[in-house]
């Protein structure tokens, strides 16, 4: 790396690469990073490597990339994986709907792909899992519940006749009976939505 400029203005851009990903730092350089106040590694540390003529290398990746810093972009990356635009490691193609052999899907349920249902999931009679739904490990979907494009992290419980749009639920969330969660809602870990609530 010969030049590093974080958040350049349009007239300062001289290349088509951005800074993203994982950093590997030499421990002997840690003394340059102050404990306080808040400090930017991109605005101070990286430019200091160039100024001192120290080794500073990067890998230029030209494959799939997306910034998942907003709920909509986070949903988009899941759709892209399910559509096969990006082959995520250890994720089977889900163009028709991938259901783990360790999931229990009861009779008279409907699973519409592309979707992903992980191991240990229980889907009760009459429930519906719609396209672009991602159901994490050990989630429990009760009778007649409708999951239409939501991303459920592990250990969520969706109550009987509850309805979820394309929302994001953290770990260990509980959605009560007949509750409705609309598109764009994000629930943090261990959130509880009571019966008949609407979000």
Q: Could you explain the architecture of this structure?
A:
The chain is 12% helix and 17% strand. By secondary structure, it is α/β, with parallel strands linked by helices. Strands 1-4-7-10-13-16 form a 6-stranded parallel beta sheet. The radius of gyration is 22 Å and the shape is elongated. The termini are far apart. The mean pLDDT is 90.
Write the layout of secondary structure elements.
Blueprint: H1 41-51, H2 71-82, E1 98-99, E2 104-105, E3 110-111, E4 116-117, E5 122-123, E6 128-129, E7 134-135, E8 140-141, E9 146-147, E10 151-152, E11 157-158, E12 163-164, E13 168-169, E14 174-175, E15 180-181, E16 186-187, E17 192-193
Parallel strand pairs: 1-4, 2-5, 3-6, 4-7, 5-8, 6-9, 7-10, 8-11, 9-12, 10-13, 11-14, 12-15, 13-16, 14-17
